[in-house]
Specification:
511 residues, D-Maltodextrin-Binding Protein, domain 2, Dipeptide-binding Protein, domain 1, 3 domains, 7-stranded mixed beta sheet, 6-stranded mixed beta sheet, 13 helices, 30% helix
Length: 511
């Protein structure tokens, strides 16, 4: 693992730089706000369009949704409770116990729910979430607090699809939209977005401000935490930097296992990658255990399927693709590649140094079996735009916040090509489509789970992507921070309860 050794040496050098800069730093700037360091900047504050991790997590703070999930991935009431009226219809009742005021002071009602989902269902709006709710036939407002959803086909788990933040039916400027501001009813309100790298929101109950500060470079992000320019950061650091922070008396570091799924994606329309032997060779060439051991946290788990084993539809017993360079080379030879005719591929990633480090090691591992990989890194917006547009051969990304198995339709069904869904690799398999349809229409929960497990085994066999791991979660914060709890999917809901010693609540604030 020469590539790993080289990067570890660079990291050790980087730690020396951090130490010297930290010692030379001036006094920490004082701020009453909680400054949260981000590795990737958010792209959109409109929950009808946001799909990247940072945007989705921040939108959870600004907007409320009808349904949420517990840690066992079961749907639970958020804005509304529900009951099934017929196999084709559900009634949702907005809860009086929930604060439902938009930022403009208007009360969230059934009209706003209908307007939000009608917008998503309208093809001309090109919402990427349309595929997840395409089973809705029509929506009817019964009264101010009651709304009925009529389905095209029975779906006992339909409530699990209604997880998109509700926007107001009126008051949205059509030209400005909601991409660069919010009008939600969540625990936080929008304050300002002065630059792409700086977003400010405010907690409604006590006016505590959260400043999201984008710092791409992991070493600089750590330095800013040590200097007090950032109060807390979560994830997206090499393991050595996490260990370094754990040795600092002024910093607290917490860990927990996570469910976010990282993978290597393929363009299934690419002439070379249409050959299953090539995809299998790539899977056998990647040493996931070494990557986890040297670069990722101790709670990171090898993944063999999109859903974690703890999920009610997860696979608990499967071996996946073991590291086997000899088999990888043989598969490539059978596919027509050799030293004289090597396989050459482009691999895209973000320009975040930690993600580049992972990609560089995968590049090295693929090179050791005879695959020449050209590594291309871009800023997040450019990279994500290329992936959504299908401009790639290989790429690595993570699916965050996966709870409902409707993700399979959204990602793998042949009808879910962008912008109708997230089948970015243009994968098409009639048997996969049929299993998705069967699973979604199964009334019996156990039968449904069995279909989803069968589907995941088929995907592992057909390999439209290489499962990598479920990344652990951690946060590092200064000692002024307390009350922050990490979620299984890595969301930022812990900011609802976070406290900062220097923050003074308004004297007349009633908790």
């Amino acid at each position: 693992m020469k590539a790993l050794a080289k990067h570890l040496t660079r990291l050790n050098y980087g730690l020396l730089i951090i130490a010297s800069l930290y010692l030379a730093a001036c006094d920490s700037p004082v701020s009453d706000a909680v400054r949260f360091g981000l590795a990737s900047a958010p792209i959109s504050l409109d929950p009808r369009f946001a799909t990247d991790a940072a945007s989705s997590r921040i939108n959870r703070l600004l907007y409320q949704r009808l349904v949420d999930f517990d840690e066992q991935f079961r749907p639970i009431p958020a804005l509304a409770e529900w009951r099934q009226l017929t196999p084709f219809s559900f009634r949702f009742q907005l809860r009086d116990s929930v604060q439902r005021l938009f930022e403009n002071g208007k009360k969230l009602s059934a009209v706003d729910v209908k307007a939000t989902y009608d917008f998503i269902l309208d093809k001309k709006n090109a919402s990427p979430h349309r595929g997840s709710v395409a089973n809705i036939d029509h929506i009817q407002v019964v009264d101010e607090n009651t709304i009925d959803f009529r389905l095209k086909k029975p779906d006992p788990l339909f409530p699990a699809h209604l997880v998109i933040g509700i926007v107001p039916a009126m008051g949205i400027d059509k030209e400005q939209g909601l991409n660069n501001r919010s009008m939600g009813s969540g625990a936080f309100r929008f304050v300002a977005w002065p630059s792409n790298d700086h977003l400010i929101i405010e907690r409604r109950r006590d006016k505590l401000r959260i400043e999201f500060i984008h710092v791409q470079d992991a070493t600089v992000r750590v330095l800013k935490l040590l200097r007090g320019e950032i109060d807390i950061l979560q994830n997206d650091l090499p393991r050595e930097l996490v260990h370094y922070l754990e040795r600092q008396n002024a910093i607290q570091v917490k860990h927990r296992a996570g469910s976010n799924f990282s993978y290597l994606g393929f363009n299934m329309k690419d002439p070379a990658l249409t050959d299953i032997r090539v995809r299998q060779a790539i899977a056998h060439a990647i040493d996931r255990h070494s990557l986890i051991r040297y670069l990722l946290g101790g709670k990171t788990q090898v993944a063999n399927a999109l859903l974690s084993p703890e999920h009610w539809a997860g696979i608990t017993h499967t071996s996946g693709y073991v590291f086997n360079p000899s088999l990888a080379r043989r598969l490539l030879f059978e596919a027509g590649y050799s030293d004289k005719k090597p396989l050459v591929l482009e691999y895209k990633t973000t320009n975040d140094p930690f993600r580049i480090r992972i990609a560089t090691i995968i590049q090295q591992q693929l090179g050791e079996v005879g695959i020449k990989v050209k590594l291309l890194s871009f800023d997040w917006a450019t990279f994500y735009g290329d992936i959504k547009a299908g401009r790639f051969q290989l790429y690595t990304l993570s699916w965050v916040g996966i709870k409902s198995p409707d993700i399979f339709r959204y990602v793998f069904h042949s009808e879910s090509l962008p912008p109708q869904g997230a089948n970015r690799g243009q994968y098409a398999n009639e048997e996969v489509d049929q299993l998705i349809d069967k699973a979604e229409s199964a009334i019996d929960p156990q039968r449904r789970a069995a279909y989803y497990r069968q589907l995941q085994q088929l995907l592992l066999q057909d390999l439209p992507f290489v499962p990598l791991w479920y990344e652990e979660h951690f946060y590092a914060a200064n000692r002024e921070i307390s009350g922050y709890q990490m979620a299984l999917d890595g969301n930022y809901d812990g900011l609802k309860a976070i406290m900062k010693t220097s923050h003074q609540q308004p004297a007349n604030q009633i908790e």
